Amino acid sequence: MRTRPYKRFAAVAAVAALTATACTAPDQAQEGPKDKAPLFKLGSQISYEKYGKDYPDTKVEDVPGPCSYEAISRKDYSGQTLKIISHAVPVIGEPTQLHAKQFEEITGAKVEVVNVPFGELHQKILTPLQAGQPAYDVMFYPSLWIGDLAPYLAPVPKKYLNTPGMKDVTGTYMDVATWNRKVVQYPMDGDRHYLKVRTDVLNDPKQQAAYKAATGKELRVPKTWDEYQDVAKFFSGKDFDGDGKRNYGSAEVTKRDDLTFSAFISRAAPYVKNPDVKGGVFFDLETMKPLINTPGFVRALDDMVKAKSTWAPGGANFGLGDEIFSFGGGQTLMSYSWDDAFIQAQQPDSRIRNKVQAAPLPGSSEVYNRTTKSWDTKANQAPYFTWGWTSAVAKASRHQQMAFDYLCFFSNEANTALDLTIGRFGVNPYRYSHFDPSFWERLGWDPKVAKSYVKTLSGMEESRNRVFDLRVPGVNQYMSALANGVAAALAGQDSPQDALDGVAGEWSKITGQIGKDKVQSAYRNVVALEDNS
Fold it and tell me: What's the superkingdom here (predicted)?
């Protein structure tokens, strides 16, 4: 793993939500920019303060390079219109709007942003592409949709791949951006699941003594899902804050239509990703038989059902936002999912700021071997690189250069440094430079917290036993079926085995409808990442 110090970071900032305009018919001519005098000097101080007062007061230096404020402000796109589709505000939608406003101001372009709720985004992007209509030049979407979208995306030109910022993107996220050996997605976010815990509770001598007396075990950051359950169960319902209110053991994403499938895959990863077995986690690559109802997945769902007793009231219907604020607000002792809950806990006004720690996802003491059809008794961990936001340019766009310039500007070093500090933006570390603890210490993070954070994230990059999302055509159908099965088990409607047997049946039908060869061809890209081939 290579690390590079992130320089020039000073202290945060401001942004206001901007009004999106509707998409209009595409312009008829492909035009490049004209040249003009730059609006920024090399190394200018950058902040978002003129756009609002709802953000931390950070300023950073404009890092010289082809994507910088100075370089992009030399380009004159007056008279041209860039059309963008993105997620609803705030997650990804808000930075899309902000950087569109900035791009307008410094290039003279007109930028139209359409913000769409998550449930509608896939269709709104894919339908015009399939019809051959370049409704949007730039698209922001979950990276696991690449199996559906790749045929319609413009490969990232070499001059953008050679920028310093792009060369700083980690190997994992360059892999995520690549399809059939071509980089067709423009990296601007890096998502993974990991464990978050409150150290003020776990390191309290009184709590440690009480836990030892009750369980006979040492209280520590859980290393397995069994340990996670033990700790969560012990603390659930107790007032460990001493404020007269009950606290709870675990906050998890459990709402059927709000990313439950990702939470379940986190729990399943160490049970199903055997380092000695190649050829697929979700399907057998050679036969395309679903593996979702094999013993490792069933064990994980059984664990998740048992965990219900450790959740806060309403926890059986928690969406991602609920999980973020339950842990980030101090209600629960532990959680696992995206960065957002950890960043929320580390906000300047958080009552648990610098009282938290990042750690790898819990592992297991045994892992299923689907070749021998038995359990291998050995400690196993499997980091989960869950879907993250990405961006791309439509192959049919008549403004590809302007579109790539916008993405280059969106993800430049100054903007990324600021965006990473704003939890609701949904922009998380994806460059090697983001793994420097000093980057976070300059935000006021305690050195121990910063080191736990970057060590956890960089450790996932170094692991050779990893799980990636299923990135194939029809992925939304597969994940919807999985979410339905998990929800049925959590509700007590089906046993974990019966629920996942039903999911496997649905997956086989979906594969048949889409075409086995088509799904198999796409799945080879996923297996290549998992098998490090």
Answer: Bacteria
